[in-house]
Every structure is written in C-alpha cells, then in structure tokens.
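Why should sequence recovery work at all? Because a backbone constrains its sequence more than one might expect. Tight turns favour small or flexible residues, buried strands favour hydrophobic ones, and helices have their own preferences. The token representation captures these environments compactly. In the example below, the structure is given first.
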C-alpha cells in the first residue's frame, strides 16, 4: 500500500504588490529587493479575506483535478490560521462540502506542506483513510510588520493543494521515502514572539512591544541554516531511495529566496536549469509554497515522468524532503500574469 498524488490545484488572491509599491514606504529600492530575494512582486489578501478562503479555493481545484467529490481526511498546513482556536481545517472541509470528514491543521511553518505530505501518507498507509486532501494556505502578510524591510519584502499569500489516494508503490506519484527534522534550539531565528501563551502570560493581553506581534527574522543565520539543512535532508532522501543527484530532473525547493535555491543546487551538484521557481511572482508563501510551485510548474516546466526532489525549510527550525516520479495529472495552473477570480 502506498499514497499516490492524483490531484493538484492552486489559488492566489487578486491583489498584486510590486517592489516599486513597497519602496514607497520602505527605505529600499526595487533592485535591492530583487537582487537579494529574486522577488519582483507578491500577492496579498485584501481586508476581510482569511487563510480559510484561500484554502477552500485551492482545495476545490485539487478535488476537481483528481475527479473526487469526497476524501477520507483533510489536512491543512498553515502558520496563519483564521484564529488561534479552533483549527481552520474543519471549517475548510465543511465549506468544501466534506461534512463530518476528519480535518485538522499542521503548523510547521515553511516545512508544513512536507510534514503534511508525510502525515497524509501515514493516514493512508495505516488504513485510516483511503484518500487525503492536503492544503497549504497562508495569509501571512497579516503577520508581517509593514515597516520591516527584512520581512515585508519577502512574504506573500496564496494556497495550493494535493489529493492523495491509496495506490501501489510502483505507480508514478507514489510517496514513500521522507526525511523530516527539527531543531528547537534555534527557534528564535524565525518567530512571532506575541500571540501565544508565553508572552500573554508574561505581559498580559494588549501589552508589550507592538512589533512582537509580527514576524522577527534573523536573515543571515536563516540563510545558512536553510542551505545546510536542506542539503543534508535531500541527500538522506536520495540515499534512502537508492538515487543520486544525477537522477533528479526537477528540484522543487521551498520558495524562500532564489539565492538559497541556487546555493542548494550547487551543493547537490545539480545544474541550475533543474531548479523550478515562481518566487519572482509570488514571494515566500510558507506552507503554500511547494504546492503552488508544483501547480505553476505544470505549465511547461514539470512533465509526467520527471523525478522530482521536494525540500523545504522553515521556522521551528524544521525541514523536510521527499522524492517522487511526477504523475500524469489534469491541472489548470494558476495564471501568474493575471488576477485570479474566485471559482
């Protein structure tokens, strides 16, 4: 028994924010942003739009891609849920018509979708579910300090989703080998200090530094950790599958920074043309990054039969990797050059 990818969908909010627009309020230039991140523009939610709204749209498209009207479970990977309590997954499932379907959230920041993939594989392999809808969705722009050049230039909003079904290990799309890891010693490198029980109990609700309610990021240290952790993680996955870097057709890495992806490819000995990327148009969308990347890459850069190496790194610190042969799917990828409309 194995879990097989059989559906894929993505969705982006319609509002585009360019580097030029950000420079109107930040002490920077469009070229500074592009040269250090690879980002030209990103999508952001409008007032009143929440993570669950993005998740529903991506989930609907993934179900349509798979030809499914129902699944055995829904897993939502997100770091920006609608509320601290309850989880957003059950509401997303209900809005998709999956009434009383088991649904829950996974919070592992930018690694959340890979952790969610491993969770979905576990549910199917254990016989708990015969199919799983896994969604990565973020409205993370709501948690970024608009006056902080380090973070306001990097993060965007969006959602992507995969459908997994029970299948054979030798099928294209089968997911078997994973490498997951975490290191809480460095948890402060990427963190939102306020909002949880630690700071609420220490200072009282509504007190303390307003900046603590937004993301804090130690950029240089995060860069070093990301390259090293994803390098080691991908190497372990390749060893477990009996593959080498030369067997990899596509490197689908978390879209945090183009320089991180290039450094990772260099350390793995992969030529640059094997990197797929959409960071220039969507920025860092955390848990939505990998499925959105796969969705957009199907528009010419990802074809059935490609051996795809997936890897991610994020707050926690956390990281994860997996390898699969890309299946033949019906996908209508999001159009990065146009505004997406709710379906």
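From this structural description, the recovered sequence reads:
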């Amino acid at each position: 028994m194995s879990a097989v990818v059989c559906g894929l969908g993505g969705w982006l909010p319609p509002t585009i924010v360019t580097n030029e627009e950000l420079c109107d309020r930040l002490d920077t230039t469009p070229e500074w942003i592009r040269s250090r991140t690879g980002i030209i523009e990103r999508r952001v939610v409008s007032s009143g739009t929440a993570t669950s709204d993005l998740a529903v749209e991506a989930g609907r498209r993934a179900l349509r891609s798979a030809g499914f009207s129902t699944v055995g479970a829904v897993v939502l990977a997100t770091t920006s849920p609608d509320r601290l309590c309850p989880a957003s997954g059950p509401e997303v499932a209900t809005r998709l018509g999956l009434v009383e379907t088991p649904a829950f959230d996974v919070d592992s920041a930018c690694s959340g979708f890979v952790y969610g993939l491993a969770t979905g594989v576990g549910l199917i392999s254990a016989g708990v579910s015969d199919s799983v809808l896994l969604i990565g969705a973020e409205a993370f722009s709501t948690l970024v300090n608009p006056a902080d050049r380090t973070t306001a230039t990097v993060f965007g909003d969006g959602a992507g989703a995969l459908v997994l079904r029970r299948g054979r290990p030798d099928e294209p799309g089968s997911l078997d080998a994973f490498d997951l890891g975490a290191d809480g010693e460095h948890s402060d490198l990427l963190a939102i200090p306020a909002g949880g029980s630690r700071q609420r109990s220490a200072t009282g609700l509504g007190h303390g530094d307003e900046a603590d309610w937004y993301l804090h990021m130690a950029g240089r240290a995060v860069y070093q950790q990301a390259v090293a952790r994803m390098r080691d993680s991908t190497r372990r996955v390749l060893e477990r599958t009996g593959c080498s870097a030369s067997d990899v057709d596509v490197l689908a890495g978390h879209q945090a920074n183009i320089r991180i992806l290039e450094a990772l490819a260099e350390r793995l000995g992969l030529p640059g043309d094997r990197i797929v990327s959409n960071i220039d148009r969507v920025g860092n969308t955390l848990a939505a990054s990998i499925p959105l990347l796969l969705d957009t890459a199907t528009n010419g850069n990802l074809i059935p039969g490609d051996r795809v190496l997936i890897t991610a790194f994020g707050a926690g610190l956390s990281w994860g990797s997996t390898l699969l042969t890309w299946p033949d799917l019906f996908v209508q990828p999001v159009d990065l050059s146009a505004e997406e409309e709710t379906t």
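A few observations help interpret the result. Residues 2 and 168 are 5 Å apart (CA to CA).
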